[in-house]
Design goal:
28% of the residues lie in helices and 19% in strands. It has helices at residues 2-8, 25-28, 31-42, 65-72, 107-110, 126-134, 149-156, 214-229, 263-276, 291-294, 305-311, 327-335, 349-352; strands spanning 20-24, 79-82, 97-100, 117-123, 138-139, 141-144, 163-166, 183-184, 233-234, 241-249, 253-256, 280-284, 299-302, 317-319, 339-341, 357-365. The strands form 4 sheets. It has a 5-stranded mixed sheet with strand order 6-7-16-10-9, with helices on one face. A 5-stranded parallel sheet has the order 13-12-11-14-15, sandwiched between helices. α5 (107-110) links the parallel β3 and β4 (117-123). α8 runs parallel beside α9 (263-276). The longest helix is centred in the middle third of the chain and has 16 residues, at 214-229. The radius of gyration is 24 Å and the shape is elongated.
Length: 379
């Protein structure tokens, strides 16, 4: 039922909707499972929106080129478990549609259709499913149906998506309870989540009121990391549903140094990244006299600006110490879908450390039909 409501609620038009269902081969190959999926989809009441008894209503448009292509060109090797069926001649109301045995290189696997259209994929194992999901360009929501604690741990610590759901639907995020926002191309800017504790930071500019010593700044960063950034927390302490909010380090980040950047500010950036566990590379012109003072701070890469531009795609995020940088750098970053954090360095770690992490929400419905065996640990 979690799959059905996530895939077909709101006519499948939510950005968080379940458009891909990856099923381990032992379950996928079971004829009874296949029959249950078909029965569940075909039992959903479909019709026009003015009948409030309908679960699936009309779509916002009947000019969806991607949907039309997916319906007209089912991929080789697939079959319609539930064939597409429009209830009106204008083709606004599409009944739940399921394409079975979609391959990872298939059109519907990589294309978000924004319709009540579910693609079901056969996978060898949970790790296989994780690898396939992480290969996609987008990463907004993802869900796992499993009672195995080992599988839950593997999945939530491997999957690249902003909102994770265990044993519940993957739509309907609630402000504060499940702050909303994705990763990869599902993130905007620094990926600060809507409905979360940091969202207001997107609309303000932070500056220092008075200068602090470098030692005081680094101590502030260390304390902020321990208090805010290094440990997950249960947001609302609901009985039966655990909602965790946590920060994850980036896999690879770069600071591009320019002429007016001070050694002190560069050291602050390096320490901030290190404090939250994000590997940082310092990109700097070859022969720059500051290199000798920075060798203990991070990995140093001496390169021209043009060579740096070529390397941009390999990084998760770019840091500069000012917005006064060449327009070409913004253009190259945009081409590679990379975010440039160009705010001035500040002494307050609660603000500065946001540049070196990404946010993730995990919602875990740990009761089974109202019965609670054990409250999961916050980790």
């Amino acid at each position: 039922m979690n799959v059905m409501t996530s895939a077909f609620g709101n006519a499948g038009q939510k950005c968080s909707a379940c458009s891909l269902l990856l099923v381990e081969k032992e379950v996928f190959d079971d004829p009874s499972f296949k029959g249950k999926v078909r029965d569940a989809a075909t039992s959903i009441k479909v019709g026009f929106n003015w009948d409030l008894g309908n679960v699936v209503g009309g779509m916002i448009t009947n000019r969806n080129d991607k949907l039309e292509h997916a319906i007209a060109h089912p991929e080789p090797g697939t079959e319609w478990l539930v064939p597409p069926r429009f209830l009106d001649k204008e083709k606004y109301v599409l009944a739940p549609t399921i394409l079975w045995d979609v391959k990872p290189d298939g059109y519907s696997f990589h294309t978000e259709l924004f319709a009540p259209f579910l693609s079901v994929v056969r996978v060898d194992s949970l790790q296989h499913a994780i690898d396939l999901v992480n290969s996609l360009d987008f990463g907004l929501t993802s869900g796992l149906q499993s009672l195995d604690e080992r599988e839950q741990a593997l999945w939530k610590n491997s999957i690249e998506a902003g909102n994770l759901y265990i044993n519940r639907g993957i739509t309907g995020a609630i402000v504060n309870r499940q702050p909303f926002g994705g990763m990869k191309l599902s993130a905007f800017g620094g990926g600060i989540k809507a409905g979360g504790v940091n969202y207001v930071s997107c609309f303000v500019e932070a500056t220092d009121k008075k200068p602090l010593s470098i030692d005081a700044v680094l101590q502030n960063y260390k304390e902020a990391a321990e208090k805010e950034f290094l440990h997950p927390r249960d947001v609302n302490h609901l009985f039966g549903e655990q909602n965790l909010f946590r920060y994850l380090p980036l896999k690879k980040m770069v600071l591009r140094v320019f002429e007016n950047d001070t050694v002190e500010d560069i050291i602050k950036v390096s320490y901030a990244a290190k404090t939250v566990g994000t590997p940082l590379t310092i990109s700097i012109h070859k022969g720059d006299v500051r290199v000798a003072q920075l060798k203990e701070s991070a990995v140093i890469k001496e390169e021209s600006l043009s060579d740096f531009y070529k390397s941009i795609p390999q990084y998760d995020r770019i840091r500069t110490l000012s917005s006064d940088i060449p327009m070409e750098m913004f253009e190259r970053a945009a081409e590679a879908n990379k975010y440039i954090a160009f705010a001035p360095v500040v002494s307050e770690g609660r603000m500065e450390l946001l540049h070196y992490v990404k946010e993730q929400s995990i919602s875990f419905e740990y009761h089974r039909y109202g019965s609670i065996a054990e409250v999961p640990a916050v980790e």
